[in-house]
Each structure stands twice: as C-alpha cells, then as structure tokens.
Specification:
four-stranded antiparallel beta sheet, about 10% helix
Length: about 120
Amino acid sequence: MASVLSSAPTAGAQPPRPLNVKYTVWAERPFPVTIYYREVDPPNWAEYSHNPYVFSPKAKADVGPDAQWILDVTLADPDQWAMVTATSGPSTQAPNIHCVLAVDGVVVATDAGPKGALCSIRSW
C-alpha cells in the first residue's frame, strides 16, 4: 500500500508574514508619467486575470531627477504580485524613466527605458 504525503499545512501553521514593498519611479528629466502598481494581493490568478485593473490602480505623477514617486504597500506574496510600471504615454519625447522595487528594504528589481519601465519579481 502506497502512502500519500499531504501538502496541507499542519495545525497551528502561521500564514506568511506580510512584507513591505516599496515602489520608486523617476525620470532623467521632468515629465508627467502614468504609473500602474499592485497594492493588494489578488485572491487568485483567475480573479486577477479576469480584471487586472481592479488590482492595479493607476496614478499620474510629475517625476524627474529630483522628483520621485514613492509608494509603500504591504503584500503577502510579493514574488507573485509586486509590480510597478511607468510610461510617458504617446509623447514623442523620451524622458528616460526608471523604476525600483524593494522588498523589506532589499532592492529586488530595477528597470529603465526611454519611454517606460517595468519592475517586478515575476516575469509578466
């Protein structure tokens, strides 16, 4: 008779500790950008994929070398859900946008691009 191992958590197991996620966006020259970010963990992939914008608020910000957009959020599973993206939109100008994603004070993702940047731990 074969034994089956259960992957169910043991009695009294604690859920994962929520982690601080810090998003930072700036540009090499002053410019208005549109930023999407994740501020809550979706309950599951199906609900997220059905309507990702419910879980991805949008902000508009004027950023530059001395003007950063910074947001701290708390996520239970940042490996899965932490994400910030910024874009200069349809403008023909290239402000050179940068982003940084840090979890509990440790930088885990950076990106930069002429008209946009995406920072996440997971590949989207």
